[in-house]
Write a sequence for this structure.
């Protein structure tokens, strides 16, 4: 959880002119506060039917719905990038577009400069988790995964490890 919230804040920090996100209507105010200007209610609309072809520069997928990569390719402008944390890559990449899979820290072992830049953003207070849905003790890790599995988490589910000995 929390990757979508982080993506919205980073898009704002990087100067995106137009930030579009999918969320439920219940979370519109939360996403607007993080920088989203256009909100698509995924319960009533499919983003690939709302967005025009060749209309966006970046699509960041945190859900992994079937065919997301293929749908993303149609919406990306020349030079656009599709990034997924779920592995739902497009079967083919349109000329002038790219796709990337970002799943775990092993995919970023050579990105110290990027991590330093992110650290500066955090230090300025421009990147933070605006909402913690639950803070659980270490013994609640299983419950935390169950909350996250619902895909209805707003913000982050955190595990408190203070004063805990492993």
């Amino acid at each position: 959880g929390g990757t979508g919230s982080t993506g919205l804040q980073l898009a704002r920090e990087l100067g995106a002119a137009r930030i579009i996100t999918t969320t439920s209507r219940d979370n519109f105010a939360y996403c607007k506060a993080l920088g989203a200007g256009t909100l698509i209610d995924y319960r009533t609309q499919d983003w690939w039917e709302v967005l025009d072809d060749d209309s966006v520069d970046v699509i960041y997928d945190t859900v992994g719905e079937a065919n997301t990569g293929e749908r993303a390719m149609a919406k990306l402008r020349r030079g656009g990038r599709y990034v997924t944390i779920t592995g739902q890559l497009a079967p083919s990449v349109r000329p002038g577009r790219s796709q990337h899979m970002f799943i775990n820290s092993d995919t970023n072992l050579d990105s110290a400069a990027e991590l330093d830049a992110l650290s500066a953003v955090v230090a300025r207070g421009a990147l933070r988790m605006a909402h913690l849905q639950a803070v659980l003790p270490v013994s609640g890790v299983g419950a935390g995964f169950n909350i996250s599995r619902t895909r209805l988490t707003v913000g982050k589910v955190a595990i408190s490890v203070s004063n805990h000995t492993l």
Remarks:
- The longest helix spans residues 112-123.
- The first strand starts at residue 20 and ends at 23.
- The beta strands are 20-23, 38-41, 56-61, 76-84, 98-101, 132-137, 156-160.
